[in-house]
């Protein structure tokens, strides 16, 4: 059922919502003046928002925390 062309959706699929300010506007990696992309997980934030968070990526933090919790539970067995 490949019915073709949804250019708008394709564009949106590459966009991100800034998780820090949760603004409705979609941001894109190529908006380099206002958007910063996390080198580790590839998610995008407003540069200003990320700076406010001392460059702490929320997603990386989440992944890290989950990894820690998996480690601790596997230790318990
Ligand atoms: Zn933001
Ligand atoms: Zn990240």
From TrEMBL:
Transmembrane segments: none annotated. One of its GO terms (molecular function) is phosphatidylinositol phosphate binding. Residues 1-67 form the Rubicon Homology domain. It holds the Pfam family RH_dom. This is Rubicon Homology domain-containing protein. The lineage of its organism: Eukaryota, Metazoa, Ecdysozoa, Arthropoda, Hexapoda.
């Amino acid at each position: 059922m490949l019915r073709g062309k949804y250019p708008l959706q394709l564009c949106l699929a590459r966009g991100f919502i800034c998780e820090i300010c949760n603004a409705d506007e979609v941001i894109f990696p190529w908006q380099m003046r206002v958007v910063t992309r996390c080198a580790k997980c590839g998610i995008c934030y407003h540069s200003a928002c990320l700076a406010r968070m001392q460059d702490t990526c929320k997603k990386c933090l989440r992944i890290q925390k989950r990894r820690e919790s998996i480690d601790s539970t596997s230790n318990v067995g």
